[in-house]
Specification:
9 helices, 2 domains, 192 residues
């Protein structure tokens, strides 16, 4: 007789994502995952095969999470520089208020894992490709809205602002709001 799952996979995946986000990949043990996900080790392995595969699925879950929450306004088809500016300052205010003190799961993972694991590094880079695509669209719209010069190198600016977004995630763990706002102000000034 086949076994039936006594849990909703999307729910336990959300819990796993939060455990990895809070603790990092290496510091998250299967025992901790069992405790936080509310399922046993057998169920984890039966559903996700191993810790790394669970982590990769958690990264996918994180990307969907940020699309629906954090990046919703930036993914609007008409989003331009004004929306990017509002987004960056909002992120700083949230992060320095302690709400976003975990940083970004992907940035944390890039810092922790780097290229030590090729599969995880590929997932990090897929996420960064998503961000760059979003930024390219923003800059194309900003040119059309005459918010930035028509000769703006969209590719360079997408790479630059991806770096800015990563930096904010890390710097907000130690820098204050005024310092981070200066960081954003200078970044935005160079594109206008």
């Amino acid at each position: 007789m086949p076994r039936y799952k006594a849990f909703v996979e999307s729910d336990v995946l959300e819990k796993a994502m939060n455990v990895f986000w809070k603790n990092g990949y290496e510091a998250t043990s299967v025992r901790l995952l069992e405790k936080e996900m509310g399922i046993n080790q057998f169920s984890i392995y039966a559903s996700f095969k191993n810790k790394k595969n669970l982590f990769i699925q958690a990264i996918h879950n994180y990307q969907e999470h940020v699309k629906k929450t954090r990046f919703r306004t930036l993914l609007h088809e008409n989003a331009g520089l004004a929306e990017l500016e509002a987004f960056l300052f909002k992120v700083v205010s949230i992060n320095t208020a302690g709400i976003g003190s975990k940083g970004c799961l992907i940035v944390n993972t890039a810092g922790e894992i780097g290229n030590k694991d090729i599969e995880i590094a590929m997932e990090v880079n897929r996420y960064y490709d998503f961000i760059r695509d979003m930024l390219r669209n923003i800059f194309r719209n900003a040119i059309a809205k005459q918010e930035i010069p028509a000769n703006t190198n969209i590719e360079q600016q997408a790479n630059f602002f991806l770096g800015i977004m990563q930096s904010i995630s890390i710097a907000s763990k130690t820098m204050n709001c005024l310092q981070l706002n200066d960081f954003i102000t200078v970044a935005l000034a160079q594109i206008k």
